Amino acid sequence: MQHALNLALQAQSIGEVPVGAVLVRGDVVLGEGFNTLIRDHDPSAHAEMVAIRAAARAEGNYRLPGTTLYVTLEPCSMCAGAIVQARIARVVYGADDPRTGAARSVFRILDHPELNHRCEVVGGVLGEESGELLRQFFRARRG
Question: How far apart (Å, rounded) are the C-alpha atoms in residues 100 and 57?
Answer without folding.
Answer: 28
